[in-house]
Each structure stands twice: as C-alpha cells, then as structure tokens.
Write a structure and sequence with these properties.
By secondary structure, the chain is α/β, with parallel strands linked by helices. The chain has 11 helices and 12 strands. It has one domain: TIM Barrel (Alpha-Beta Barrel). It is 37% helix and 18% strand. Strand 10, helix 8 and strand 11 form a beta-alpha-beta unit. Helix 4 runs parallel beside helix 5 and helix 8 runs parallel beside helix 10. The longest helix is centred in the middle third of the chain and has 17 residues. It is globular. It binds ligand PBG. The site of ligand PBG has 11 residues, from helix 6.
C-alpha cells in the first residue's frame, strides 16, 4: 500500500479535533443489535444467585427468567444464549440429563417462547454441563469418543429445536457433528432452525469462571486439549470453518474473543460469512475485576467490544450486554 500525503500539508490530528467530527468519520459503532447475552439457569423456585468469579452475573431459576428477559426486551437485545447449572445428582458419565425433555434448557425454552416469542434463543450443544467428568463428550477408555458423542449431540439438538430454540450452537468441537445435526434437523422438518457452529474454539484458560458458573470446574480432571484447538496455531481454524460451512453451518463463532482477534479477522476476510465473537468469562472477569479495583475505567468495556467490530465480527456474545445496552440507550 502506498502512503498518500505528508506533514505539514497533511495533519492527521485535523480529523480528531472535535467530538462531532470524530463521530462523523467513525468506521465502527456498537448498537444493541450487536449483542448476545448469556444467561445461566438453575433449579428451584424464586432464586437469583450471584456467581463469585463473575461479579454482576447471576443464575436464575426458570420462574425468575422473566426478570432478566424484560430487560433484554426493553433494551432490544436480539438474542440470549442459555446455559444450565445442573445439580450434581443429575450428572452422570453419559450426561443423559442433556436428553431429558424437562431439563433446565427445555423448560427455559418453553417459558421464553411462550412469554417472549420475539427474543431469539441460542443453545449450546455439548455435554459438559451434564457429565460427571465435566467433558463435552463421552469418555470411552478414558478418551473422548468422537462418533459416539455425536449420536447424543444430534438428539440434544433435535430436542432443543423441538422446544423452540432458534439457533443451535454446537460448542463441543467433535469432528463432523455439524453435518449430522443439519441432516437430522432437516429430516425432522426444522429446516429454518439455524446452526451457529463454535467452529473455532481454543482450549483456553479463559473459560475458568464459566466452568464455575455451570458447575463443571471441580469435576474436570484433565484439560480439553484433545478436542479444543491449540492456541499456538491458526491454520486449523480455516479447515474447521470450511468443513463446518460445507456441512451446513450458517454462522461461525470464534472463541475466546479478545485474544483471538487475528483469527476473527482472517476468517471474515477469507470466508465472507457472519462471524460471531465470544468475549468469554475470563475476559469479562479480567475487565470487571480491574474496574472494581480501579485499575481500568468503565470505558474499557466499550473499547473491548469495539475491537471485535473492527476485527470483523457482526455480533458479540458478552456478559456485558445489558450494561452496555443501557449505556447506549442513555447516550442516545
Ligand atoms: C461448553 C462451553 C464453554 C463455554 C461455552 N460453552 C466452556 C468450555 O468449553 O469448557 C465457555 C464460555 C465462557 O467462558 O464464557 N462447551
């Protein structure tokens, strides 16, 4: 690229002088349309509880979901992502609670689709909130068995679609699951249910607080490095995305977010498809605790979200969704 212009005829500070001017030439902006709010659901009645490692984030019993969904609706956040906090006595080696039509996710879906039909709902397809070992798949001879796992994931996806899930989001990182899930959805006439594949998901330490939030942390003995991606690499991400698109994915997720902006940018540039970024629990926690301790200020949040837009993400899954949507509303 040839650089055009030079000092003193050209002064780059000229376009930064006034706020209105900076607004005028801004290339990226955040609106509530860009936000997806993750929500943790728990058993019981009339319960809203805090999560120690994620200040400001709560777990809701199903009957209490309307309290947060009303905010989502009034702030015009288009979609929520549901995650269950499964009680220990419902976890087992096979994660069979994932297929219970009365599990937390299915009950939440029925409530949301009944009372808030205009809010989009996305659901994770993976077994980790349900297994006694905390892994996303089935353990056979102490290894995660890819093909046996997919058989269950397909059933989990169909169940979620049946109760109104709009966006099926496989986050398990098994090979070949998108194709089989798409085939099963189509066979059951769920042709309009879309698939957001967590195509690029790294084995990351930044998921720590989330594993606390869904109660899988203390269960997990080993890391997830035999199925989630190696953070030394980026090449894998092209084949992960390419395969998933061929298998029928409509959108792809890159996760974690902030420390993988290079990947977001490459995927967007090369595939020209909707890329969604997940600002994961550890990224949220790092910023939140830094603000709490006055190491960072509040503007760091919007700065972190803008980075995703600049990199090419069309939307961001973030625990800051409500907070930021409120700020945007107040500034309008
Ligand atoms: C589970 C899942 C994880 C997250 C979303 N879905 C954790 C993991 O893979 O261990 C992490 C989200 C976050 O950290 O905010 N398949």
């Amino acid at each position: 690229m040839k650089i055009i212009g030079s000092y003193p005829k050209t002064r780059l500070r000229r376009l930064r002088k006034q706020k209105w001017l900076r607004n005028l030439i801004s290339e990226n902006n955040i609106s509530p349309n860009d936000l997806i709010l993750p929500i943790f659901v728990r058993e019981g009645k009339n319960k809203i509880e805090s999560i120690k490692t994620m200040p400001g984030v709560k777990r809701y019993s199903v009957d209490k979901l309307p309290s947060i969904l009303k905010k989502v609706k009034s702030l015009k956040i288009p979609m929520v992502a549901l995650f269950p906090y499964t009680p220990n006595n419902k976890k087992n080696k096979q994660g069979s609670e994932a297929l219970n039509p009365n599990n937390l996710i299915c009950r939440s879906l029925r409530l949301i689709k009944n009372r808030f039909p205009d809010i989009g709902v996305m659901c994770d397809v993976a077994l980790d909130p349900y297994t006694s070992h905390g892994h996303d798949g089935l353990l056979v001879n102490n290894e995660i068995d890819n093909d046996e796992t997919i058989k269950i994931l397909v059933k989990q996806a169909i169940l979620q679609a049946k109760y109104g899930c709009d966006v099926i989001a496989p986050s398990d990182m098994m090979d070949g699951r998108i194709g089989l899930i798409r085939k099963a959805l189509d066979k059951e006439k769920f042709t309009d249910v879309s698939i957001l594949s967590y195509a690029v998901k790294y084995a990351s330490s930044f998921y720590g607080p989330f594993r606390d939030a869904v109660g899988s942390k203390s269960k997990l003995k080993k890391d997830k490095k035999t199925y989630q991606m190696d953070y030394r690499n980026s090449l894998d991400s092209f084949r992960e995305v390419g395969f998933d698109l061929i298998e029928g994915a409509d959108m792809v997720m890159v996760k974690p977010g902030m420390i993988y902006l290079d990947i977001i940018s490459k995927i967007k540039e090369n595939f020209k498809i909707p890329v969604i970024a997940y600002q994961v629990s550890g990224e949220y926690g790092a910023i939140k605790f830094a603000i709490k301790n006055k190491v960072l200020n509040e503007e760091s949040i919007i700065e972190s979200l803008m980075a995703f837009k600049r990199a090419g993400a069309c939307a961001i899954v973030t625990y800051f969704a409500i907070e930021i949507a409120k700020k945007i509303k107040a500034s309008n």
